[in-house]
Amino acid sequence: MDRELLEAALVARERAYAPYSKFLVGAAVRAASGKIYTGCNIENASYGLTVCAERNALFSAVGAGEREFTALCVVGDTEAPISPCGACRQVMAEFKVPRIILANLKGDMKEYTLEELLPYGFSL
Ligand code: THU
Questions:
Q1: 6 C-alpha to ligand 1 centroid (Å)
Q2: Element containing residue 59 per DSSP (H, E)
Q3: Which residues of the chain have pLDDT under 50?
């Protein structure tokens, strides 16, 4: 299951558009429906418009009608498993993603809960 999610994130990573940072990231989220949605980071010459892989995966799923998720996996070429940015953690919190699997290209994988990644996060 998690292996399939990681494979999907790795495939998505190959599609990253990161000509500025050259740092490719892939993400895959599994919806309660069982379907997997993927995303990669997409950069822009106006740097602040860049959107991370995790948000692209989640937004693609939500845009397809999904609201509930069972797990999200993100992968990058980092020494330790990649650590998602604060903005992406907040978006994961919005959709209450229960399991967040962080990985790197060496095959290191570590699972976290939302509470571990975003303690005392903002919500309405
Ligand atoms: N990035 C992601 O896509 N996800 C992360 O978890 C960390 C950072 C992207 C944003 C930017 O395109 C590049 O990585 C360098 O920050």
A1: 17
A2: helix 53-63
A3: none
Query: 43-75: buried (b, 16+ CB within 10 Å) or exposed (e) per residue?
Result: beeeeeeebbbbbbbbbbbbeeebeebebbbbb
Residue with tokens 């950069």: 43
Nearest to 114 by CA among 99, 94, 95: 99
Q: Is 54 a catalytic residue?
A: yes
Predicted pLDDT of residue 1: 80
The answer to whether 91 and 54 are in contact (CB under 8 A) is yes
Q: Say how far apart CA 83 and CA 101 lie, in whole Å.
A: 10
Residue to probe by mutation, ligand 1, list 13, 50, 104, most atoms within 8 Å of CB: 50
φ and ψ at residue 28, rounded to 5 degrees? -145, 135
The answer to pTM > 0.85 is yes
CA dihedral 57, 81, 108, 6 (to 10 degrees): 0
pLDDT at 64: 98
Q: In what order do the strands lie in the sheet with 36-40?
A: 36-40, 25-31, 69-76, 100-104, 109-112
